[in-house]
User: Which sequence fits this backbone?
């Protein structure tokens, strides 16, 4: 089970990285096309006029996917910023209780967000909601990526909280001040 969970978190991290690379490539293509147009104008030639339609909207969707898909992986490797100024000074037993309680609260909150975003994605799919940009993209696509990222975050929070409660392992990143 441990291998499956860690693999899912890692795969989500890779998917987030792919989304960021796609953003980079789209922006690079658009900037390159604008530079080429400027160079052609300077040379007295007509510009190509190449544009990536709805680039801002597409990059926004990719950024949302990257942000949410990266959450579980970032949590499990201890990459989330935590202020442990109080928790680190507590005795081990009390620290375990506080870490477990904060993990449970975070898992419940993430679970609620997962439910809400999943409902939103399902409604967008049922009603065929599309974006308002030049390219009408189905809204359930980026919303589904957000829901998947939140689901994995919820699972990761339950996972690390369970390890804290049963084995006394502090939440990842707990040593950060």
Assistant:
């Amino acid at each position: 089970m441990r291998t499956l969970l860690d693999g899912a978190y890692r795969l989500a991290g890779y998917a987030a990285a792919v989304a960021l690379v796609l953003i980079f490539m789209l922006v690079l293509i658009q900037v390159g096309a604008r530079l080429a147009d400027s160079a052609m104008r300077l040379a007295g030639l007509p510009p190509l006029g190449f544009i990536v339609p709805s680039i801002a909207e597409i990059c926004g969707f990719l950024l949302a996917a990257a942000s949410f898909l990266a959450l579980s992986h970032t949590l499990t490797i201890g990459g989330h910023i935590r202020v442990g100024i109080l928790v680190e000074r507590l005795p081990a037993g009390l620290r375990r209780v506080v870490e477990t309680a904060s993990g449970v609260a975070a898992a419940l909150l993430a679970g609620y967000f997962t439910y809400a975003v999943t409902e939103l994605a399902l409604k967008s799919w049922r009603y065929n909601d599309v974006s308002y940009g030049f390219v009408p993209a189905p809204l359930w696509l980026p919303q589904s990526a957000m829901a998947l990222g939140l689901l994995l975050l919820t699972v990761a929070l339950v996972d690390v909280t369970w390890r804290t409660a049963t084995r006394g392992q502090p939440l990842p990143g707990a040593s950060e001040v």
